[in-house]
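pls read this protein:
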Amino acid sequence: MRRYELIAPCHFGLEAVLKKEIIDLGYDISGVEDGRVTFLGDEEAVCRANICLRTAERILIKIGSFRAETFEELFQGTKSLSWEEYIPRDGKFWVAKAGSVKSKLFSPSDIQAIMKKAMVERLKEVYCESWFEESGESFPIRAFLLKDEVTVGLDTTGESLHKRGYRKLAAKAPIAENLAAALIMLTPWRADRILVDPFCGSGTFPIEAAMMAAGIAPGMHRSFTAQRWPHIVGKQVWRDTFEEANEMVDLSVNTDIQGYDADESIIAAARENARLAGVENLIHFQKRDVSELSHAKKYGFIITNPPYGERLEDKKNLPSLYAMLGERFRALDAWSLYMITSYENAERDIGRKADKNRKIYNGMMKTYYYQFPGPKPAKKPRMDKED
């Protein structure tokens, strides 16, 4: 199989979580930068990364990199890449996105236009064509410019990997599925521990947790752009990888995962999303206000995305809302609280300074992931076998 350098973009601040996921899949990391992790793999890695990674945004095949401080250098650098190895004569190709940070070239539209022109010129020479109909499969390109270094990748994913296919109904200000998965991974929660989201909205945190507990790969029930590129990734490789993912599913796992919301229609949407994800029997959704948050058992986890003002008519409700969350948290026995919010007075109103907080960009919004870890459960005594 051909070897590739693969690029996996992710949310800023969560590179370490994605890096661990990739290593756990069995692949070698070749680089970590702000917002992306690069690793080495073959065509099977393209399939497994798309289907199995919970925290990535997409998987790109790195076409190449070069330095460009002028548009002429951008044109020549793009033209020098071996596009014919990836794009067939009838392929539809374009630069879907261009990002620029601390670079002399910064206009996305100009970068996209010049790179497209350079690709056309290269393929004209290779295929001896004067014009391309572009009637075949799609080959979207993405380019990153960082300090005048251009990195070019072929997008194997299509729609972002956060679109698992289960969230047909969304609440206001939903959290992205891959971000929710990463935030769960930043906690010590495991499938045999309690998890409650008292502001569950469309159910993303409980559903992602249930999928982890049952071993359901996030990309099992969707398609990818590279499935239509048999010259790059064979169809049998895709079939084998989907089959491998299916064999990992275990819906018999016992879970205590709960989602609450004060709005009955939102809870109905969350239940439907859980059904579409195949985990409706692993989650208990209930119409319940945060003031009713309680649980008889110890050592549970609250993992939540509470309102931060953007989805409330009146920000003046936030202090009492966070104060109530803090009150109910303190009433629980040996629990942990993990909360993402942009609300600047969250710790004050919760009534406790977080043990840790991590800055994370949720889209363009700067948020903090406040972490209030509780005590670890006592280890069960080991039953030694009799001599």
Observations:
- The chain has two domains: 4-155, 177-219+227-372.
- The longest strand covers residues 92-101.
